[in-house]
Design goal:
D-Maltodextrin-Binding Protein, domain 2; 2 domains
């Protein structure tokens, strides 16, 4: 009798565990996650995201990076649950080049790219032979070259423009004989004294005390296709916690903060 009772108890416990494991929201959800963001405005926005998420019982630990090459590696290795710092072309390049399997789950902001200078106040003052700093990663390098073309400073091979793969080798005309210098994105603000103008991503520009609206001599339209996103490992894309994270970011509170705090230098993409 005692043995049979133990067997029935064990069977019931096993059945309950199986039902629990298959219940989806409980099995796949968790309430504590680590999210990687870039230094600067990403930190500021996620202070608000954390507060909104906490109301839903989701606790977010923010991990700050100052190098664009690190957050995807940390996510792929399992050190992060998600990151929020990049646009789709950058993610596509990283997945291809480094063998990651990282996917987007929601849009965040559009951060218009700008060229900045400590030597000129207007792009009309750009001298012949000027040194022009651009990012050395493929997606942001392409983006910077497209912005130079939109300003009439260079022209690029049409095929490279169509495929979003432009490099300095695709420059067809360069009437001012600009010297294009490719540097790591984080290094560009520190190199402004040595360059005539430099393409600087919004988060690094803000950290360097530069304002897109006040200081940029060339800037992208706010309707740029380079919307940033929240990314996770493919295996996690349908997990409830990922949906809760996106919902917290895309909340009215966060949207209002972005619009109020950044006054057009960052634009909600949701």
């Amino acid at each position: 009798m005692h043995t049979n009772f133990r067997r029935r108890t064990f069977a019931l416990a096993t059945l309950a565990a199986a039902l629990f494991a298959g219940s989806g929201a409980f099995a796949q959800d968790k309430n504590n996650i680590k999210v990687g963001v870039s230094v600067g405005n990403g930190e500021q926005i996620f202070e608000v995201v954390k507060k909104v998420a906490a109301k839903d019982g989701l606790n977010i630990q923010v991990v700050v990076f100052n190098d664009y090459q690190l957050p995807n590696a940390a996510l792929a290795s399992g050190d992060l649950d998600a990151n929020a710092f990049q646009h789709q072309p950058f993610l596509d390049n990283q997945n291809k080049a480094r063998g990651f399997d990282i996917v987007p789950v929601g849009l965040t902001i559009t951060a218009p790219l700008g060229f900045y200078s400590r030597k000129i106040k207007s792009i009309d003052q750009l001298p012949d032979g000027a040194t022009v700093g651009i990012q050395n990663d493929p997606s942001n390098s392409n983006r910077a070259l497209l912005l130079l073309q939109s300003a009439g400073l260079i022209t690029l091979k049409p095929e490279a423009v169509k495929n979003n793969t432009a490099t300095t080798l695709d420059v067809v005309t360069n009437p001012k004989k600009l010297k294009l210098v490719a540097l790591d994105a984080a290094q560009l603000p520190r190199s402004l004294d040595d360059l005539t103008i430099a393409s600087i991503n919004n988060d690094y520009a803000e950290k360097a005390g530069l304002s897109l609206n006040k200081d940029a001599v060339i800037k992208e339209s706010p309707k740029s296709p380079y919307a940033n996103l929240i990314a996770v490992r493919r295996a996690d894309k349908d997990k409830p916690w990922a949906k809760r994270l996106v919902a917290a970011y895309q909340s009215p509170e966060v949207k209002s903060f972005i619009e109020r705090q950044f006054k057009g230098s960052l634009v909600p993409a949701f």
